[in-house]
Amino acid sequence: MSINKFTKNILLTAFILFPFSVYAQSHSLKEEATHVVAAAEIAPQYEIDQAHTKVSFEVAHLVVSSVTGEFKKFKGSFKFNPEDYSQTQLDASTEATSVDTGVKKRDDHLRSTDFFDAKKFPAMTFKSSSAKKTGDKTFDLVGDITIRGVTKPVTFKVTYKGEIKMKGQVTQAFKGVAEINRKDFGVNFQNIVEATPAVGDTVTITITAEGVRKLK
Fold it and tell me: Alpha-carbon distance 180 to 115, whole Å?
């Protein structure tokens, strides 16, 4: 075979295969772009299920014991992707007047100016700013908590409990725990009591929550 004929055959083969090569590369790039877009999708939004969520707290009492309570009225929503905890966002609030420790006299005192001053500051809020994975089913949720008009940073240690799909909706479940110092928020009261170990400074907040969204 002459060199000219050999060269012509190579050029002809290249001419025939070139469109297929371009298509393959283009198709591959499109698939990669699709995966990138999918990974960057914003986590879906869920509404807090009030019937299956509990916002509770615990504080030391007389050193050897503790008082526990909860807030009966709250609301909020969050964004969550079980494949990427860093996308988690939470915006929630509780009503200070809904505090319930099981003792009316104590609850009335907690609503007073000595503690929550519920008339002046009816809501306590939390808004997250970032989330960082710490384990297969755990992550730190960092944000700002506001009590009595004072805002401070706080970190919730969150455990992801799992996902359930049924009856046309998706449910996500969590447990989060954080600690705050009540005095950082101006929750001080009678000096004679503050001088004794009647009530501890550290308050442990525990939230067991479920969030739901409708399936399309």
Answer: 14
Secondary structure E strands in the chain: 45-48, 54-61, 65-71, 74-79, 89-95, 99-100, 123-133, 138-147, 150-166, 169-181, 199-214
Distance CA 117, CA 197 (A): 22
Q: Are the CB atoms for 158 and 137 separated by under 8 Å?
A: no
pLDDT digits (tens, 9 = 90+) for 147-183: 999 999 999 999 999 999 988 999 999 999 999 999 9
**Separation between Cα atoms, residue 110 and residue 95, nearest integer Å:** 12
Q: Tokens in use for 66? A: 């503790």
> Kind of pairing, strands 123-133 and 138-147?
antiparallel
CA–CA separation, 136 and 109 (whole Å):
42
